[in-house]
Amino acid sequence: MKRKRLSIPLQLEACCRPHRQRRWLWVLAVGLVTLLLIWFMSRSPDQSSPQPTMPTAAAQMDGPPWQAGSSEGRFTVTLYADLECPFCRAYFPQIKRWVRDNTDVTLHWHHLPLAAHEPAASAEARLAECAAESAGHTAFWQAIEWVYANTRGDGQGLPDGLRYPGLTPAVEQCLASERPDAVIRAQAEQAMRSGVNATPTVRLHDRQTAQSILLQGPIEGDLLLSAMDMLAAGEADTTPDAPIPEMPADDVGDIPGSPQS
């Protein structure tokens, strides 16, 4: 009897072992099939998998402030300007060339249409904003250059019947909206709050020290370099109540919108 009782679990163990082996083989097979399916699906493009896409025009355009030069430069030069201002028109190619020659500088545009030059100044600013909204930073600067090359200045505006060559349906749709007005108005109000009421005016900002200085008038490149050195050394007076440094009167002339005019 003892031998019979001992033989029962041995028989059961012998009987169950093949079933256990088959079960593990089945689990292993299912696992391998699952891994193969995952591998196959990862290599087969389908609509649910995100596909690499080219940057869209909207992603490339970003938005104002529109900039030129090095986007990673330590210094930012913000030009407060009016598209009907003759001094801005003369200064614009100089500052843009200087920024191009100094790889550590980014140029930003800041609209400040002066009351004496309205409505032409704002109309031209709207054109530049809509060109940029449609095609990005390069289109903005192209529009600025075209306006300065064609405007009669001092509030007289563009010649009658002159049509901007980049006037696409997208630009026309933008011009028919209020979007550019909101941008121009916000920039003009911000300039006034900062104490800027003349054009051209330059704000030089040091991204590393987070300090800025306002410079009124068509500032020459050598003076900008000196201002950059002062900001970097912490020697510039950047307090909110500090007077805006000005160029000598012979260099500035009669700046439209300035207290002297």
From TrEMBL:
InterPro entries: Thioredoxin-like_fold, Thioredoxin-like_sf. It comes from the Bacteria. Residues 68-211 form the Thioredoxin-like fold domain. Keywords: Membrane, Transmembrane, Transmembrane helix. The keyword Transmembrane helix applies. The keyword Cytoplasm does not apply. The chain crosses the membrane at residues 24-42. Residues 236-261 are annotated as: Disordered. This is Disulfide bond formation protein DsbA.
